[in-house]
Amino acid sequence: MGQDNKSQTPSTFLLVGIPGLEHLHVWIGIPFCSMYLLATVGNVTILAVVRAERSLHEPMFLFLCMLSVTDLVLSTSTLPRMLCLFWFGARDIALDACLTQMFFIHSFTAMESGFFLAMAIDRYVAICHPLRHTTILTHARIAKMGASVIFRGVAFFSPHPILLMELPYCRTRVIAHTYCEFMAVVKLACVDTGATKRYSLSVASVISSCDGFLIAASYVLILKAVFRLPSREASFKALGTCGSHVCVILVFYSTAVFTFLTHRFGHNVAPQIHIFIANMYLLVPPFLNPIVYGIRTKKIREYVLRFLSVEAA
């Protein structure tokens, strides 16, 4: 009977934040908040510019808008709640809010990966088949690719909150994390969750490895085409663009892979290092994407500067 009383699904969980660094939460929140504000302004600017300028209704910019929406949802589903924890000590999070946050984090992380792949495919077609770019990537095909990425994220990660809702919890309701991550919550269950963990890790590893392989293959083909360009200036320009894209993608995948491997094998990794890096792959790409894909893109930069000069006048 005592076991039955203890093995109930709690109405709230308690978030710890970054274990061992609780005394630095206030200070850690400052750069996190700055990155969130810059990510929000940058991604909203990209969406506004592409919507206002019809000449930007091209495959690259349409995929960029999809990525911007994903970044906004991903960062907004985590950062405001995290800052409440860091600055106001608001540790309690309701079960429904926790599971909703979990769904958004995991499904939109998968969408982020999918849109990186879509943009890599767009760059491959634009550089390797420039004359057929608009005929291959029509608006209808772009819409289908975007819908496929969204469907994949929703379909594979909808089971996560459902599976956790069915579990009994008898150990503790304290989540040693800054947000409701699936693996951090499932550890609190008082039944064998081996199959549930394997499902989550398998889905994450299949999606990330398939997307990562196809992105790498796209950029290898792009580089081969770039080195065959007759103009050295054109080659350097294409390499600069691809290099910045690859850097953002590497940040996203390296931090995600580190988090995955830590869950699977890294039991000796300090919790604060694991959780800090887990925050990085939710914070850094939304912050960097508008800079790398937006500000460094000539058409968007020119439109923003033109708009600012008109407003100043």
Automatic annotation (TrEMBL):
Q: Where is the G-protein coupled receptors family 1 profile domain?
A: 42-293
Give the Gene Ontology MF terms in alphabetical order.
Answer: G protein-coupled receptor activity; olfactory receptor activity
- Keywords annotated in UniProt: G-protein coupled receptor, Membrane, Olfaction, Receptor, Sensory transduction, Transducer, Transmembrane, Transmembrane helix
Q: Which CDD domains match?
A: 7tmA_OR52R_52L-like (cd15951)
List locations, semicolon-separated.
Membrane
TM stretches of this protein = 24-49, 61-90, 102-121, 142-159, 206-227, 239-261, 273-295
Give the bilayer topology.
Multi-pass membrane protein
- Could you state one GO cellular component term attached to this entry? plasma membrane
What is its biological role? Odorant receptor.
Q: PANTHER family, alphabetically?
A: OLFACTORY RECEPTOR 56B1-RELATED (PTHR26450), OLFACTORY RECEPTOR FAMILY 52 SUBFAMILY S MEMBER 6 (PTHR26450:SF38)
Q: What is this protein called?
A: Olfactory receptor 52M1
Taxonomic source organism: Galemys pyrenaicus
